[in-house]
Specification:
Low-confidence stretches: 1-5, 300-304
CATH topology of the largest domain: Rossmann fold
Shape: globular
Structural class: alpha/beta
Strand content: 15-25%
Number of strands: 9
Helix content: 40-55%
CATH architecture of the largest domain: 3-Layer(aba) Sandwich
Order of helices and strands: HHHHHHHEHEHEEHEHHEEEE
Number of domains: 2
Length: about 300
């Protein structure tokens, strides 16, 4: 008779299927659901065995493996974000299906959507009557989004200050934006310690605050609100607690985030001394990436 504490190993059918996926470079579209179901039903004690079977796919040659190996010390580094933005696939058939699977996930689509959301924020600022507009990006990563904005508006009045703690990210961003680096200043510093040089019309952070505990989240909202120009906006992206890719990210890539609800974001903004009437939460079209938006006041009134 089995003990109630017996930890069930992976089923033979599951092991056979996973070995098949490794041999074919990852799942084909008709196998996505079966693979997702396996991951979704894994118990904590089964994760190590699962990873051991697909270990040959968990290296820097795949996007899931890049997150797992963490060559720069953290899962969502500038190279993987750049790859997601560009929907990149490793052409090597030993790995390409894994990358197609990764790029097909709702979480990856949501990351691409947040880039489009950023572009709309910048376009709105570009259309304003400001003679020059200053943008601060907290955790700039590859700055692929900035590059795309300048491709649309080569004569833009926007000027960017980009912050990242990773010199590799700064170097990558600077290199791919070298043609317009006269409009960009880079700062290698932790956002907790950065001392802003001016007031900003837009303060943007796409995927940094997901990694912060609540106390640091609140501290950073409070800190940078003080540097928001009159009529400016502070926009913070955060994955929703309804993210359907959460288990896949955690199991495949050892990629953990602080998922939050709309009400979590509003509450923390108010705790950070933002006026509640100046706070709203938006989302990209899938509803997976939320955006905490905090407007500054104009002449003491809420900006529209």
């Amino acid at each position: 008779m089995l003990s109630l504490n017996t930890k069930q190993p992976l089923q033979k059918e599951t092991i056979r299927f996973l070995n098949h996926l490794v041999s074919t470079g990852g799942p084909e579209p008709h196998e996505y659901q079966e693979f997702t179901n396996i991951v979704g039903h894994l118990k904590d004690h089964q994760v190590a065995a699962f990873r051991d079977i697909i270990k040959n796919s968990l290296d820097v040659n795949t996007l899931i493996g890049h997150g797992f190996v963490k060559p720069y010390g953290y899962p969502g580094d500038f190279t993987i974000i750049h790859a997601i933005y560009n929907d990149s696939i490793n052409p090597d058939p030993k790995y390409s299906n894994w990358d197609r699977f990764f790029q097909n996930q709702p979480g990856a689509h949501a990351v691409r959507n947040r880039k489009e959301y950023f572009l709309k924020c910048c376009q709105k600022l570009e259309a304003s009557d400001r003679k020059e507009a200053n943008v601060l990006i907290l955790g700039c990563g590859p700055a692929t989004d900035v590059k795309e904005f300048y491709a649309l508006y080569p004569d833009s009045r926007l000027r960017f200050h980009l912050i990242d703690f990773d010199q590799n990210a700064i170097d990558f961003a600077s290199n791919q934006n070298r043609k317009i680096n006269g409009n960009i200043k880079y700062f290698r510093v932790n956002v907790l310690r950065f001392k802003p040089l001016k007031m900003y019309d837009l303060i943007w952070s796409a995927g940094l605050f997901d990694y912060f505990k609540e106390k640091h989240f609140i501290y950073l909202v409070n800190k940078y609100l003080k540097y928001l120009a009159e009529g400016g906006e502070y926009v913070i992206g955060n994955f929703s607690h309804k993210n359907p890719t959460k288990k896949l990210m955690e199991v495949l890539s050892d990629w953990y985030l602080h998922h939050r609800s709309k009400y979590d974001l509003i509450r923390m903004a108010v705790e950070a001394e933002a006026k509640e009437e100046n706070v709203k939460v938006d989302m990209e079209e899938l509803g997976i990436n939320l955006f905490l938006r905090i407007r500054s006041s104009v002449n003491g009134k809420t900006a529209k």
